[in-house]
Amino acid sequence: MEKFQLSGELRADLGKKATKETRANGLIPCVLYGGSDVKHFTVKEGDVRKLIYSPNVYIVELTIAGKTVTAILKDLQVHPVKDNILHIDFLEISTEKPVVIEIPIKLEGLAEGVKLGGKLSQQMRKLRVKGIYTNFPDRLIVNVENLGIGKSIQVGALSYENLELLNNPINVVATVKATRGSRANA
Description:
The chain is mostly beta strands. The protein is built from 4 helices and 13 strands.
C-alpha cells in the first residue's frame, strides 16, 4: 500500500467555539484513536486533499508534536451544503492488531460474455477486508475471463491470502449482462 505523509498540530482547546475558530483559520479538526491515548489535533486543508479526493487507499504516517505513528483514515465528516471537510478521524494501526478497511476492486481480463456481445457491469467498487495492514494490496484483482452472458461473480467466490472478506457472500461484484446484439448472435 502507498504511504502518505501528514503532519498535524496538537489542539489544546476543545469544544464548539474553539472548533469553529479552527475551521475559520483553514484548519481541519482531527482525532487519532486506537493507541495508548486519544489525541486531538489539526491539519491544513490543502495537506489532506490528495488523501481524501483519491480512489487510492493510503497508510498515513502521521506526525504530531514530533512523534510519528502509522494510521488509516477511518471516518470523514463533510458539510452537507458547502462540501468542505468538517472533521477527520484517524485510527492508529500496528502489526499486532488486525484492522478493517475498504480496498478498491480492479477487474482483470476480457470476459467470454463480452466477446459474444454482452456488457460487463461492475456492481461493487470496494470490498471491506480485515487483516494486518502490511498484507493489504493497493487493489483487489478479480479475474473475469470465464464470465459468460448472464453470469456473475459474487463475494463468496473470492478469496485473498491473509485477508478476511467482510461483505455479504451473496453480493455481486461483477456481471455480464445480455444486450440486443448478444441476443441476435445466440
